[in-house]
Specification:
- This protein is α+β, with helices and mostly antiparallel strands.
- It has a seven-stranded mixed beta sheet with strand order 6-8-5-9-7-10-11, with helices on both faces. The protein has a four-stranded mixed beta sheet with strand order 1-4-2-3.
- Bound molecules: magnesium ion.
- The site of magnesium ion (MG) has 4 residues, from strand 6.
Length: 336
């Protein structure tokens, strides 16, 4: 049913229409969500598993660009949460969604946002279990809580890494930050195909959900790279009470990122300092290198060794091929 247009002729939706017509179909596969018609949802983890919860919020102009496509904003909102579940070794099952829409939101925008969620629900095997829709006088604000399950007692924490462990990262680094640079017009002259790849990595990161369930019993510690490699490595090291040495030349780069950095060498710190990659950074025993390679191959993702964990007190350092330390300020963290 189409709501009456407002005085200015805009097609402005009401809360019940948004929930009943646009969001309720996203809950159709979840028996415990009762079509979003009750006050809460029920979830039973599989036998021998326990529940893992994570939440992220995104604000227009801070975590995404206001003119990013609504489908992409929806996918990023879901995927950054699935990335956290994967890094903990969990399998995603469902999610709760809070949307705070500014008064001038168009119902077509909300429909496209829900289409993005529907596509990713099919891709990652999750469904909507509940949430809330409110109005805000501020910028568009979104929050999503993802729910997953992990074998009992096997969640992979940030702490637990040991000095001597190898340090691995999945996929490639720096693409998202370079994609943001493309969107801000900082990489003119980059071939269209490379620019499009980097922008897609910024807008629609690839959570490593296939690798996640292989991490319990293999990774001593893990987290996803959201703030930037060196910043997130710092989190892992402080939680584990270790130091780290990252071999800068080993950081995995996509062909598009290599081309972009050749074009603009002053951005070379982004693979280590840029955010939004949503790759998994993890530590594993050196004797488990073959198991890591096998798990990555099984998951269809690259996992490369980028460094070594050191005893506490050694700090977190990046070194070049000759083993010389690279000043961290050259690997600066950028945010907008
Ligand atoms: Mg995280």
């Amino acid at each position: 049913m189409t709501p009456p247009a407002g005085a200015d002729g805009r097609d402005r939706p009401g809360e019940f229409e948004i929930i009943g017509e646009i969001f309720a179909p996203l809950a159709a596969d979840a028996p415990g969500a009762w079509g979003l018609k009750d006050d809460a949802a029920l979830f039973h983890p599989s036998a021998g598993f326990e529940t893992v919860l994570t939440v992220d919020a995104m604000v227009a102009g801070v975590h995404f660009l206001p003119d990013d496509p609504p489908e992409s904003i929806a996918k990023k909102l879901l995927r950054v949460n699935l990335s956290d579940l994967a890094a903990k070794g969990a399998v995603p099952r469902g999610y709760l969604l809070v949307t705070a829409f500014p008064p001038d939101i168009d119902i077509g925008w909300i429909r496209r946002f829900a289409e993005g969620l529907a596509a990713d629900q099919a891709r990652y095997g999750v469904s909507l279990w509940g949430g809330d829709t409110v109005k805000t006088p501020g910028p568009l604000t979104l929050s999503l809580t993802a729910i997953g399950e992990v074998p009992q007692g096997r969640i992979v924490r940030r702490g637990g890494a040991e000095a001597g462990d190898d340090l691995y990262v999945t996929g490639t680094l720096g693409d998202a930050a370079l994609g943001l640079a493309v969107l801000k017009g900082e990489l003119p002259g980059l071939a269209d195909e490379h620019a499009a790849f980097l922008v897609s990595r910024y807008r629609e990161p690839e959570p490593r959900t296939a690798l996640g369930p292989a991490l319990p019993g293999l990774a001593h510690a893990a987290l996803d790279v959201s703030d930037g490699l060196m910043a997130d490595l710092g989190h892992l090291c402080s939680a584990s009470g270790v130091g780290a040495r990252v071999e800068f030349h080993r950081l995995p780069l996509s062909p598009a990122a290599e081309t972009a950095l050749r074009l603009k060498p002053e951005l070379r710190g982004l693979p280590a300092g840029g955010g939004d990659d949503y790759e998994i950074l993890f530590a594993a025993a050196p004797g488990d290198a073959a198991r890591v390679a096998a798990a990555a191959a099984q998951a269809g993702v690259e996992a490369v060794r980028i460094g070594t964990l050191l005893p506490a007190g050694k700090g977190v350092a990046a070194v070049d091929e000759a083993g010389r330390e690279i000043p961290l300020k050259q690997l600066g963290y950028r945010h907008f």
